[in-house]
Batch of 4 targets.
Target 1
Amino acid sequence: MRKAPERQARIIELVTESGSLRIDELATRLGVSPMTIHRDVNTLAAQQLLTKERGAVKTMQSALFETGVRVRLARQAHEKETLARAAATHLAPGQAVMMDDSTTCVYLARLLRGRDPVTVITNFVPVMRELWKRPGIRLIGLGGVYHEWADAFMGGMTVSAIRSMHADLLIMSTSAITNLVCHHQSEDTISFKRAMLDVSTRRILVVDHTKFTRQALYALGPVTEFDLVIVDDATPAVVQEQLRASGVALEVVPLVPPSAVALPSPNGTAAAIDSRPAGGPV
């Protein structure tokens, strides 16, 4: 029988893939009782990872709520790996690279081997864990107030630290794009991302096709603030034309079938669920 953490990780993965699943279906697929699933979902709901409504389990995503990191890592994992590989080609040895709290940057961090030496500046704990004690990587962790829901540091101290630096390159994503304007669910997120944009020489936005159908509350700025926008080829043609018409440089990456070899995950679990390597900082 699966242990509770392993079972709960599998529940997150299944619900993320489907968007919504009923309790009895989860019980059947995992080979446990509906009561066990109820307990697991209650635990995950308390962590704001999933929500339970009328016997169905759903991921939490709204204009006022940023889905938990574990769910975001599992969602569109293949697209994020593909986009990360494309973004990695724009890195050069010796650069200072700023990475935001997007889960695509977790996949990017795993691809830095061979592109060192490089300095990585980030406020996102999962990226810090990936690069902890990595040879050839100079890691600068941005402090501030830790926000558990984002697994990242934010606030005035974070913004001040960012504005005291300069980066050659910024790799960033966004929660939603509406009318070619990037949006996020948190004012704190807007504050530190605005600072990252201001202190970086070259700015790359990396977004999968689903970001063009989502909504979020606070506007960061137009996509034209970026030097390059990288999207996958599942992005609707009309959106690609709108991006080109705006004058922004656009790179469209084909979504080839997932590779047989998964990205490395040092603790042996599914990379999309937990990126934390053994021995890294907590």
Note: The first helix runs from residue 4 to 18.
Target 2
Amino acid sequence: MTGVAFTPFETRVDTIVRLAQRADALGLERVQVAESCTYDPLLVLADIASRTSRIGIGTLSAQPHMAGPAAALQRSSGGRLSLGVGPSIATLTTLRARLGHDVPLALDAHTPEAIRIAGGLADEWAPTLWSRSRLADGRDLLGRDTPRRVSTVLAGGRTRVAPVVPVALGPSLVVARRCAAWWLRTFAALEPRRLQAFMSPIAIESLRTAGRLRARDLPTIAEAAAHELTLFGTYDDAPALIAAWSAAGADRLQLMLAPEESEAQLTELVEVVAAARLASAS
């Protein structure tokens, strides 16, 4: 199962809605938006729900005060809503208490303790910036929380693995490297602690230096991380890359689109991802 997601830096609401419509028409399973200071994510999702027929809708970082509006949107959308709550265990606990199992919840957990809690309380473990080769480690931790709080919305009560993976695809490897470099530079500047689990201090510092120098290419020392943390390659590589994430343990793949791209470029990426999803399943 494959969907698309938008970062908090994507502020073009009309673009988000049109891309969601395109994703719906192409058969992608879900579109997620982050909480932003420029729009209400539930209002954007309600607009998407009214303009689409089947695609799932969701947040990346819901807050406790959204419980009431989320329950209403779940009813009006025909049960298509899910709520990512970011990394907050407190928010997960509060929303579970207020919503029961009427709305699926996902936790962006990175520590072993938080992953175990996701396995006991969340419907999905949805880490942003997690290494593909270590998905199995996280899956093992999901089953270690006892007593198990079984969700009625999942078959067998199993917490799904649904990583949120930055898209670094391009028509050529040069473009793909620039996309990967942008993602890794951004995370090195804003969330370096997340990178520390998967990259050496020297590699992280090389990304910071590249950011200060406004260098566009991917530092050689960061190439391995680009392959592990992003969907990195050419358009032709996309089916194999999606299949590799699935083989590594992803039940659902949420592909995060870069906010710096034009709407035409993002539409092209959505179409590439949709075609790659079908090709990877055949």
Note: The chain has one domain: 2-281.
Target 3
Amino acid sequence: MVLFCPCAVSRIPEGDPVFDVEFNAAVAETSTSDAAFIVADLSKKLAYASRNLMQKTKADADLRVKSATEKLSLADKLRRAEAEVLTLKDENKQLKGRCFKLEVTAKDNEKVLESLRKTVEDDANEKVALKGKITELEAVHSRVNELERVYAEVAARIDGVYQEYKKALVALGAEPLPLLEPAEGPQVFFQLLDWLTSEFEGLGEVMGVASDNAASVSFEGLVGNLLLVGAVDLSKLRGDFQYVPYEDLSEEVARIQELKITFFERFWEPSGRVAVRTLAPLLLR
């Protein structure tokens, strides 16, 4: 009996002439029972080989399916990734547009803020300037009020000044020009100055007449009293008598100082001044 090793049979290449000859010779020498055993064993081995082949084929097919599925999955993922990339690019483009708009808006806002800052600064400077002007105007207003009070006080005192001036002129035998109704504001000063100017134009003449009048009354009173007591010879003062200037009579004037005091006390104050005031209006006419 010839025995075949299953492992040997499985390793023999298909269609080998040497194997075929030997196999046929072995089958011829083998009994029917042995042949059945061999056939069953070969069938079993063939079944195992077929199952292994089918498993391998299925595994290969599964591998190919898995690979194809993975490829499809990768392709799908790639398409999705490309779509996401396009979406991101679009979003990025939109974001860039929004960023550009925001930058433009920010620059415009900066310009607006700068303009507002400058406006606020100008307003603050103008406010300070206005406060300074207000302070100046308040000072001017205060000064104006003070001047108005001065004008009113001057207007109120003008009549008093006029009355005192009138008394002084009466002593000289004259009267002042009539005083106009006091004006308002600063015009009261110009009115007063115009009136004083008119008065001063004739005051010199009044003073000259008054001086001459006083000298005349003094001479008449003194010489008249000397004649009364026989203390003077008028003939010596007539004709070519030359009066010595006052500046050349210093010694004589010094000798009569006491008599001058008596003259004022006993003649000028009691009657001489009154005579001058009485005669002054007549002389001015």
Note: The chain has six helices and no strands.
Target 4
Amino acid sequence: MSFRATALLSKTFIAGRRSTRMTAASATTTTTSGAKKQHTIFFDLDDCLYKNDWKVANLLTERIEKYTVGKLGLKPGYAYELYKKYGTCLKGMMVEKILDEDSVDDYLLWAHDVPLEEHISKDVKLRDMLTKVKEEGYPMYIFTASARHHAEKCLQLLGISDLFIDIIDVRAVEWATKHDEEAYERAMRIAGVEERERCVFIDDSTSNIKTAKKMGWHTILCGTKGRDCGSVLVCAEANHIIETAHEFSTEKHVPPSVLADDQPSK
């Protein structure tokens, strides 16, 4: 493990256990009219708020492969099989008793120790979009399957870390993945949302979109091409489909009321 990763262990994971709010400035969502909107918006992070042809995703996959093969002795490729089956390699390893909870911190630090600054940079257009949503009074959360320290670094590099109320990471949902309904239930509890139809969800994974839709959330698929196949994604469970997060707008994608039979639209 690198010195950088070791330093993060003491600074980040302790803070993650406390599930503290990101900043005092982002803890309260305000609008020019002073009214809080009824819907709460949950944004996925990796390959959703930023897109770079899965460069970061591929780096993370390589790190996970090195850990599972080199440290745990798993066969090559099995980590990705676990990811596809369970939603994250971590969840798969825990379900199959390959990794115990005492080893999770070491795994998460190893897996996320990649040079993000080489692949993610400030995105003014994204910040403008998110600032507008925040000023309109919509509470916004990051809802990610990754670790808090990874999400914090990504948001800092993008220049948008002050715009979200909190990060709901894999630890916050008690290791559930976005393939599991429990993850969405726990995200709602963290955000203080009681009505499922008041949740708006933006994610690049069709599997996650399907589970969110089953939960009664309003869904926006962000991205139109699959990572593995490169073909055009089809997802009937998506209320809307957008190419990138920059296209998101509350006028188009946050409904006054959610209809279960809404059809996907551009």
Note: The CA atoms of residues 90 and 104 lie 8 Å apart.
